[in-house]
Amino acid sequence: MRKDKFNKITDEIFLRLREANLHRSAFVNFMEDIRDPYIVLIACILSLRTNDRTTYPATVRMLKLAKTPEQMARTDLSALSEAIYPVGFYQNKAGQIIELSKRIIAEYNGKVPDSIDELIKFKGVGRKTANLVMAKGFGIPAICVDVHVHRIFNRLGIVKTKTPEETEMKLRELIPQKYWIELNTLFVTLGQNICKPTKPVCSKCPITHLCKTGNRNF
Q1: What parts of the chain have a pLDDT lower than 50?
Q2: Domains in the chain and their CATH numbers?
């Protein structure tokens, strides 16, 4: 497909998803409002392998204990574990967050690094988390690909990839940078409401006419 035609379709996809005004989970809204890289980072760690309904209240409880690396480094491990329960692997995550906070203080002068290469050096931080910190915490264009983004872009026919990491690299080549920061929020919301892993509600999808499953291939 010609680049100009692809860009026109991409523009329509993002416009329609914005206008759809689909229900956003409390956690997605929370992450949209936060501009502190540290809070984005530790909240994202909690969210891994845990649904938003559990993650959001756990994040609120965690932030009552500590909101900065300095405060978190002094937090009791048992108290943090109790606060974030029942997120998946809550004891491991509590330890990771405290250790990560100590490293930020010792190695980065108390500031979260604004580099994907540096962020993924922290235990428990992969490219998905690093990209979200860059986009939401620093406002730096980055594409955060989770299972929803990976699934939907493959269903659309825009990519044919096997892993979220592969999807991220392809989308970096294809999607105009102006859409990178909002991409995750829009597609996670679509994935939670309509384009679900099983039984997607295509009849209510605002971009079904642009989808591979709607007999239109990119």
Answers
A1: 215-218
A2: 3-22+143-214 (1.10.1670.10), 27-138 (1.10.340.30)
